[in-house]
Predict the structure.
Amino acid sequence: MYLTAVLLIVATAAASAQKWWSGAEFGFQHPTVGALVEPASALRAAAWQSATLGGLFLATVIVTLGGAQLIESGTWGALRLYENRSHVLYGRRLCAAVVFLAVVQLLNGLTLWAVMRVMAFLRPTPTLPPNAFDAGTPALDVVDAGSAGWAEALTAAGGALLVQTLYLSLGWCAAALLRNSIGALALGIGPWLVTAPLLVLPVGPFVPHSWIANLMSLPGEAQYRLYFWSQATSESSSALSAVLVAGCTAAAAFLAPLLLRSERVLRPVD
């Protein structure tokens, strides 16, 4: 779990440093990359990473190691000899995982900011303004994904924790259903990858990927630069997407302890 978190932080910093180096070769930096020398923008970029593919993988690994393995080995049933209330055991582990993910997100943002400051010192390069291109070229002025204020960064961080709570709760549901570590890992990540092509179909606005993208306000110009996910669309507001994601999170968090109630060492007849 710790190794996965470290790999995510290192991969985020390395990818951004590579983007800066490539921009230096051309003599200018893209606004989404150049803004990372500011701490608030770096924290927002870390939140984007946490809410998308990197955060999904980390959350699923946490559930696999901290949940599915306990169920598979029978340890979860043994724990219920000391605390029979499955929702209490589940709630404690969920809260601990969310706190851990919040710390990882903060460390990711600080590392990203520090690395980009070093890159700016080693290869000082001007950053293009968001409206650098004319209207007839691929526009950077459609969404200003450059500098972020602290309010925007903290909002993105809170949204990322909500999304990761959804990933965790769905992962616990998969672990309770399959009772297998490999199966829980596959079911925790697989459906998100398999259903991603639905975004290009008319049902795209109804796919959870789209809700997450709109909740996080993921700009198209930062796609594959700062996150790997669908970009935000204008078909639904961030507030509506937040309600949908929160509703799915609450439903999954309610369902998971119900599924875990069957995991016990002693049956009522005993």
In short: The radius of gyration is 20 Å.
